[in-house]
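ok here's the first one, seq then struct tokens
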Amino acid sequence: MSGKQALFAVLVVTLCLGAAAAAQDEPNQLTGMIGRVIVSDQGVHGPNEPSINPFVRSGKGISFEINYSRRLLSGPIWSLSGEIPAVFNFDEDLNSGGPVVPVDYKQIFVTPALRLNLFPTTAVSPWVSFGGGFAHFSESSQLIYQAGPNPGKSTTSGTIQAGLGLDLNPFRARFRRFGFRGEVRDFWSGELDLPLADTGKSRQHNYFVSGGVVWHF
């Protein structure tokens, strides 16, 4: 075999191996997460301010996330993916010292984002995420303490999302298609419509703390 033939053979084998590796490398992820949304307390001001417990206090509703992502760029120690985290909180309770807030409300956050992973091919990969989209709040029809109908209405607002997390795949050698994820995301959204509870604010932080499973495909 001549030198040119040997070089050609090496190139063919290299290309075949590269194609096989690319075919086996899963660029997509589908993630299912469960956790809680945490909203900080806010003071109530104005003529309806309760004399006791003058705050709007939110519960910590059990919430779910579905997230699709696809790797866009990668290097030896990093990768950049586009992702669409969608978080659903179907029961966020409210409380206050007076009948100024609805019984509860529902939250939906959808915020396309870019996610930067470090060491994406190892068993432990930290990441950060940043993006924006929308939040929708749907309020219950009744005020707390059975005080009557809620004058507030459902709202939709623009939302900025920032998150950080850790992807774990301790069994990567045998189960490369599945892994685990822990994360914290902050959805900075508009406020609820609370005509009877003036908080003096127009936006709020919604912290989603969760863990779940990642499927690579």
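and now the second one, same deal
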Amino acid sequence: MQKQDFYFDLPAELIAQHPLPERAASRLLKLDRRSGQVADLAFKDIIDELNPGDLLVFNNTKVIPARLQGLKATGGKVEVFIERVLNPQQAKALLKSNKSVKLGTEIYFDGMAKLRVTAKQGMFYLVETLAEVQLSELMTEHGHMPLPPYITRPAEEDDDARYQTIYADDTQAGAVAAPTAGLHFDEDTLTQLAAKGINSAFVTLHVGAGTFQPVKTDDLTQHQMHKEWLSVSPEVCKLVKQTQANGHRVIAVGTTAVRCLETASQSGEIAPYVGDTQIFIYPGYSFRTVDGLLTNFHLPESTLVMLVSAMAGREAILCAYQHAIDEKYRFFSYGDAMLII
């Protein structure tokens, strides 16, 4: 398949720039994997679409305030976008400045040098904190929520809470983009799902900036995915196997949960996994664990629209997306949801 096979024309006005006042107020487009038929629902209707014994798998990563605005010693501005925290004082980052940033450059915040550029690795730089400053402290004091590039406004105070799932785990901070399918869940919805007998499990994948990188090759077999760190615990593997053995469905909440479960299942059966993944899921892929997917709407020609096409079929996805455009669904991170089941 070619990259252009996944193109669709999206009106810019459908790209959601702000979250809705309430998380669960979004719309839900249901796509039947077998028939390709779609139905227009409200997000709360997901409770009726799932059965007792089904397993929802959530990504509990926490988004860090990864975007920092600093100055060089010359006074020139430099934006630091933390891609991955390596240890309490060192990170891999993207740097944006009017002039290229040299190794050894110190970056100032509030008049003090607090970061130094130490190395270059491809498109990324290695940066380390100075004077025993911790990266977590630096981001808390100077960082902003790393809203995606298609949200064309600066981050606002409300984004600190709304660009974060309500179940994000403080001990699993490390994502630089939200697992956005989870943004629709509020406490009431989770309570109702549990009351119906729908089970939950949590995996972790620290979403990287690479999730927004375009596919640069026309031939999909030549595309190399970016690396993302994930963890699938023995407890999650046990729940997945019990669910399958009892004839129920494993439903991933978001493409990141899919990447976790399918990475951990490459041997043919799910097993505990901790480490990086570069799994690229596109049509022709045979799913080993995931039966259904709750997701947002994705960018044209992106690896994410290829992933959902692997699950439901390219033509079915493109038809469903056209329906969503015609019905003026809201797209991307703060947009509406889609249930492929």
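notes on #2: The chain is about 20% helix and 30% strand. The mean pLDDT is 96.
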